[in-house]
Amino acid sequence: MAISQKRRRLLKAALMGAALPTVVNTLSGCRGNTAAARCELLGCALSRDGSFAVVGADPSGQPVFRLPLPDRGHGVAAQRREVGTLGVAFARRPGDFMQVFDYQRGVTLSRVRAASDRYFYGHGAISDDGKWLYTTEGKRQTSEGVIGVYQLTAQGR
After folding, report:
1. Dihedral through CA 112, CA 64, CA 21, CA 154, nearest 10?
2. Nearest CA to 20 among 64, 76, 70?
3. Of 53, 66, 133, 142, which has the fewest CB atoms closer than 10 Å, so is most exposed?
4. How far, in Å, CA of 86 to CA of 123, rounded?
5. More confidently predicted of 40 and 109
């Protein structure tokens, strides 16, 4: 499978961000209307110090924000710009968190723990209208796969 150039730039941005974690953490996020400030790419990253983060990058792959995650992240889902600016980073399977953030401002809004009888598989999707989050989850006792359904609000959940 070929890696897209956008994906390659995001991975490069995530690695570059690892070299400057304090600088990247102080950036204002994907603010403004200029092309350079626009957040176009989202992904999870591992820092050189061993910490985990969700990273937003501009169209050229330069990081514009870096938000800490409590554990290893995997997939990211985001609202379309036409309906909102919420993003969700998912823990790697079997994970127990998803983190809701505003990709326009580069700020964490909430962290949601999996129900005690479930875990996250690391992926999710947001409905076209931006109101619903669908997650891939598993039941702890049986490993049966289920779809979690969550309502998104301006506060993140």
Report:
1. -20
2. 64
3. 142
4. 15
5. 109
pTM summary value? 0.74
CA 141 – CA 130 distance, rounded (Å): 32
Q: How many CB atoms lie within 10 A of CB 142?
A: 8
Which tokens belong to 46? 């591992």
CA distance 108 to 88: 10
Strand, coil or helix: 23: helix
The string of pLDDT tens digits covering residues 85-98 is 999 999 998 999 99
Tell me which H or E stretch contains 18: helix 5-19
79: amino acid identity, one letter: Q
Q: Which tokens go with 25?
A: 């953490």
What sign does the dihedral 144-110-50-103 (CA atoms) show? positive
